[in-house]
Amino acid sequence: MHESTNQTDCLIIGGGIMGLTLASLIKELDSSIKIDLYEKLHDIGLESSEALNNAGTGHAGYCELNYTPMGKDGKMNIQKALEINSKYEITLQYWSYLSRKYKSFDPKKFIQRTPHISLVFGDQHIDFLKKRYLLLKKHHLFKSIKFSHNRKEISQWANLTMIGRNPHQKVAATIVKEGTDIDFGAATKALLSTLKNKKDFQIHLNQEILTIKEVKSNLWEVSVKNNISGDIKKTFAKFIFIGAGGHAIRLLQKTGIHEQKGYAGFPVSGQWLVCSNKKIVRQHNAKVYGMAPEGSPPMSVPHLDLRIINGKKTLLFGPYAGFTFKFLKTGSYLDLIKSLKLKNFFPMIYVLAHNWKLFNYLIRESFQSKHSRMDLLKNFYPEAKEKDWSIKIAGQRVQIIKPSSSITGKLEFGTEVLVSKNKKLAALLGASPGASVAVDSMIKVIEQCFSERLLESRFKNKMKELIPSYGQDLITNRRLLEKIRLSSHKTLGIKD
Ligand SMILES: Cc1cc2nc3c(=O)[nH]c(=O)nc-3n(C[C@H](O)[C@H](O)[C@H](O)COP(=O)(O)OP(=O)(O)OC[C@H]3O[C@@H](n4cnc5c(N)ncnc54)[C@H](O)[C@@H]3O)c2cc1C
Q1: In DSSP terms, which residues pair with 410 in a beta bridge?
Q2: Best probe residue, ligand 1, of 40, 43, 48, 211 (max atoms within 8 Å of C-beta)
Q3: For the chain, which end, N or C, has fewer CB atoms within 10 Å of the first or last residue's CB respectively?
């Protein structure tokens, strides 16, 4: 029984991949929980989750060189690559479960097998790649990775990267053939297709959440603006998830909860070069990542990517990171200024002072001409011609600035779930590895905020039905990984 028609058990803010993943998981676990999802735009999946607003990489650590950093002692740390790979397998398990259960959740519409390649030049970077390959190859998660410094072989993997290249330049590459390209916007819509006809699930489009206030213990009052009529109404919720992408930090500040104090956002914009020449697009069938340009943020390593969007092949290069004041693509230039509060002002200044090189890089990058952007592309594809490429704006990333004291802070590049002390409100902050690990992130929300339900054995069993590896570690359990990978990759069409 629900106390009032404008009261819900679970109010989700944001119709991106995170909000829809949470709604889907909760409904699969317990269909009696009433969910209301609010999205300020006319449709879901139009901000960061939209296909061309992100890079569509199923982040598994196969090609992203920043996931295996080299320590000052010359030792490479592969832990992050292992963690991201195993978290991505959780997403794949859940998607396989949904695609077996619902006809409308058709993986062909959003996930494609696309080889993941890392390509480097020069002795120093080749040494790095070789070391990385030797360490990863030993681990069951990366068993299929291959290394080559043979130009002929690399041409077969990614022809465009080798034609016209200086024959004296030293090159090396690794490949994992069962990498993936994902249209996260289409995945978001596929999730909605499984929820649409469910009892006690309602989606509210063109409805923007303005304020969030705790009115009594275990009850939130939320004001919602209808973006068509301009009307504002009040609604109530027992639990709130803020999945508002870059805007999450601003909404969190409105809740007044203690846990968000001192947090700030550091927005990073993005641009792509998109190839319009079909002859060239047809020649490229992989995602090719390289080394990050010096001074750039780690998640903004440009790459030359085959994308498959609505069944159509597209070739993208980027993202080129830059500085912006906006927290969403559809946001306001006042976002950053309005997010400054007494509690986060000094941590923000501290982070800017200690990341001056990064800040400087982003500002310089924002003013780069198309011509100079082409120079970076030519490192990957030497014969690229300016006339074949046009600039497109990518989505916004808002990195987290976390307070470490009242006057110091730390810039974080990960994805973080923040939960209020009473477990009645959670928010997702940060943007990398982002959408690929949406299922793992949303399970964390459920584990922390619906823990009493998960203690019941029927929910634990149900969770195992959704995610067969639930509660076990794929990094250490080789047999389990091989079993679940075989099954989910087959269901999703990633296997040969
Ligand atoms: C350039 C770029 C490249 C990326 N590449 C990758 C990649 O290759 N692989 C990967 O896994 N991830 C990638 N990411 C990250 C990934 O796109 C995000 O982590 C993911 O899409 C975030 O999903 P979300 O649901 O949290 O946010 P979003 O998709 O942004 O959804 C948030 C939603 O909330 C709505 N909203 C905001 N405020 C309100 C409000 N007040 N009321 C109601 N609704 C509101 C917005 O309109 C939006 O629809 C990339 C991101 C960027 C920007």
Answers
A1: 402
A2: 48
A3: N
Rg for the chain, CA atoms, rounded:
22
Minimal-distance CA residue to ligand 1 atom 27:
245
DSSP 419-441: E-TTSSEEEEEE-SSGGGGHHHH
**pTM exceeding 0.85:** yes
pLDDT in tens, 150-190: 999 999 999 999 999 999 999 999 999 999 999 999 999 99
How many whole angstroms separate alpha carbon 23 and alpha carbon 44? 13
Q: Is 304 helix (H, G, I), strand (E, B) or coil?
A: strand
Assess whether the C-beta atom of 209 lies below 6 angstroms from ligand 1.
Answer: yes
Which two tokens mark 360?
A: 């400087």
The CB of 220 under 6 Å from ligand 1? The reply is no
Q: CB neighbours (10 Å) of residue 495?
A: 13
CATH superfamily, domain 7-448, is FAD/NAD(P)-binding domain (3.50.50.60)
Q: Which of 54, 189, 208 to mutate to test the pocket of ligand 1 (most atoms within 8 A of CB)?
A: 54
Determine contact, residues 442/415, Cβ cutoff 8 Å. no
- Integer Cα distance of 112 and 309 in angstroms: 10
* 95 CB neighbour count, 10 Å cutoff: 23
Structure tokens at 211: 């304020």
Q: Which of 43, 49, 365 has the most ligand 1 atoms within 8 A of CB, as the residue to mutate? A: 49
Name the residue with the closest Cα to ligand 1, atom 1. Answer: 54
Cα–Cα distance for residue pair 88/355, rounded to 1 Å: 30
Distance from the alpha carbon of residue 85 to the mean position of ligand 1, in angstroms: 20
32: three-class secondary structure by DSSP: coil
Q: How far apart are CA 488 and CA 98, in angstroms?
A: 11
Please tell me if the CB atom of residue 302 comes closer than 6 angstroms to any atom of ligand 1: no
Domain boundaries along the sequence of the chain:
7-448
Name the pLDDT band for 2 (thresholds 50, 70, 90): very low
Contact 81, 68 (CB under 8 A): yes
SS3 114: coil
The token duo for 139 is 């681990």
